[in-house]
Specification:
With 384 residues, this protein is an alpha+beta fold. The chain is 48% helix and 22% strand. The chain folds into three domains: 138 residues, 2-Layer Sandwich (Beta-Lactamase), CATH 3.30.450.20; 75 residues, Signal transduction histidine kinase, dimerisation/phosphotransfer (DHp) domain (Helix Hairpins, Orthogonal Bundle), CATH 1.10.287; 164 residues, Histidine kinase-like ATPase, C-terminal domain (Heat Shock Protein 90, 2-Layer Sandwich), CATH 3.30.565.10. It contains twelve helices and 14 strands. The chain starts with 5 loop residues before the first helix and ends in a 14-residue tail after the last strand. The relative contact order is 0.11.
C-alpha cells in the first residue's frame, strides 16, 4: 500500500468511527443515558470490512493497546498474539503516535517466528484512527532483501559447483571420439556421460529451486496444511528407493497437527530428509518418522541408523554445496543442496531445524514449526 494512502485511509476510518460514536451519543441522549456508558471498544462494521480486504498486515488498537482487529496478514507474520502486539518495536511506534499525534513510518527487521533465526523486513506505518484508536499497517519487504541475497550467493557459488560436471562431460565426449572403434569403451564412456549429465541436470534443478525459495514467501498467502499429509506424501516419494535398499520406513500414529504455509514446499523439505536418511543408511536398516506437538510447537523428526555426522560437521551440513563425504555424494549424485533447501523451507515457515548425530550410530533431523494458531482476534479470517 502506497504511503500516500495512509492518511486518507486513516481519515476514512476516522469518519466511520466518528459517525458511529455520534449515532451512539444521539441514541444515548434520547434514552437518557450518558455517552460514556455506551462508547465501547467494538470496531464499527466499516472498519472491519476494510481490514478484512487488506493484502498487507493491518491492525487496529484501542487506547490500552489491545488489538481489536487484525488482518490475516498480521497473524501470518506473527505480529499479533492474544490480542496484543508481539514485538516491542511496534508498540514503541504506536506509543509515539499517541504521544505526538503525527503519523510515523519506519522500516523494521523482526523475528519471523517464536524460534529460529529467520527474519522479516517490514515497512510499518502508524497513524491515529479517530480520537480513540490507532491504525498500524505493515508491508512485507523481505522479498527484496532475499532477491539481493540470492543474486550475490548465486554468482559466488554456481561457477565453482558446475565446473566439475561440465568438465567431466567435455572429457567424456573427447574420450568417446577417440574410442569410436572400440564398442566396449564407447558403452562405458556413454554410461559415465549419462551419469554426469543427470548430475548436472539435478544440480541445475536444485539451484533453481533454492533460488526460488529465497525469492518467495510461503506465508504471504498461507493455507492450512496437514502435517500428516505432508509425512504421507514424503514417504510415498521415497518408497521405491527404500525398497531397493531393503530399508523399512516406520511412522508413528496420526498427529492431526496443522501449520500455516505451503504444503508442496513442506513435502519437498521432508522428502529431502527422508531421501538423505535412506542414502546414508545400510541395507536392511530402518528410517523412522515421528510427529509431536506441545505448547504450540510441532516437531517432525527423521531418524536413521546410518554412518552419522562428526561433531565438527554438524553446524555446516545446512550450508549450500557442503558435503560431509564428497566421494559418497559423487556416487549417489548428491549436489550438496538438499539440506540447504530444507533449511530455507523451514525458516520461511517461521521454524528451525536441528540435528543430533553420533558417528556409527545414526542421525536425527528435527524440523520445528509453529502450530497453526486458533483465531483469537475477531475477524482475522484464519481459523482451524
Amino acid at each position: 500500500m502506497d504511503s500516500a494512502l495512509l492518511v486518507p485511509l486513516s481519515l476514512a476510518f476516522g469518519v466511520v468511527v466518528g459517525a458511529g460514536l455520534v449515532i451512539l451519543v444521539v441514541i444515548a441522549a434520547r434514552r437518557g443515558q450518558r455517552a460514556v456508558d455506551v462508547v465501547t471498544s467494538a470496531v464499527p462494521d466499516g472498519v472491519d470490512q476494510i481490514i478484512d480486504i487488506l493484502e498487507s498486515a493491518g491492525i487496529v488498537l484501542d487506547p490500552s493497546n489491545t488489538v481489536l482487529k487484525a488482518s490475516p496478514g498480521a497473524l501470518a507474520f506473527g505480529l499479533v498474539a492474544n490480542q496484543a502486539l508481539v514485538h516491542p518495536e511496534l508498540s514503541t511506534l504506536v506509543d509515539r503516535v499517541r504521544r505526538y499525534g503525527e503519523p510515523v513510518s519506519h522500516e523494521l527487521t523482526i523475528a519471523r517466528g517464536p524460534f529460529g533465526d529467520a527474519q522479516i523486513h517490514l515497512f510499518v506505518r502508524v497513524a491515529r484512527l479517530g480520537a480513540r484508536y490507532v491504525l498500524l499497517l505493515a508491508e512485507d519487504r523481505t522479498e527484496g532483501y532475499r532477491l539481493d541475497e540470492v543474486r550475490r550467493d548465486f554468482i559466488a557459488n554456481i561457477s565453482h559447483e558446475l565446473k566439475t560436471p561440465i568438465g567431466a562431460v567435455g572429457l567424456l565426449a573427447e574420450a568417446l571420439v577417440s574410442a569410436s572403434d572400440e564398442p566396449e569403451q564407447v558403452r562405458r564412456f556413454a554410461k559415465q556421460l549419462t551419469k554426469e549429465s543427470e548430475r548436472l541436470g539435478r544440480i541445475t534443478r536444485e539451484i533453481i529451486e533454492l533460488s526460488r525459495l529465497q525469492a518467495i514467501d510461503p506465508l504471504a498467502k498461507p493455507s492450512l496444511v496437514s502435517i500428516d499429509q505432508v509425512v504421507s506424501n514424503a514417504i510415498d516419494q521415497n518408497r521405491v528407493a527404500a525398497e531397493a535398499s531393503n530399508i523399512a520406513i516406520a511412522t508413528g500414529k496420526a498427529s492431526r497437527a496443522t501449520v500455516l504455509g505451503d504444503e508442496n514446499l513442506l513435502v519437498v523439505a521432508l522428502h529431502n530428509l527422508v531421501r538423505n536418511a535412506i542414502q546414508y543408511s545400510p541395507e536392511g536398516s530402518r528410517v523412522g518418522l515421528g510427529v509431536s506437538h506441545v505448547n504450540g510447537v510441532i516437531e517432525i523428526a527423521v531418524t536413521d541408523q546410518g554412518v552419522g555426522i562428526a561433531e565438527d560437521d554438524r553446524e555446516r551440513v545446512f550450508e549450500r554445496f557442503f558435503r560431509v563425504d564428497p566421494a559418497r555424494s559423487r556416487n549417489t549424485g548428491g549436489s550438496g543442496l538438499g539440506l540447504s533447501i530444507v533449511k530455507h523451507v523451514v525458516q520461511n515457515h517461521g521454524g528451525d531445524i536441528r540435528v543430533w548425530s553420533q558417528p556409527g550410530k545414526g542421525s536425527t533431523f528435527t524440523i520445528r514449526l509453529p502450530e497453526a494458531p486458533v483465531a483469537s482476534v475477531p475477524g482475522t479470517g484464519v481459523d482451524q
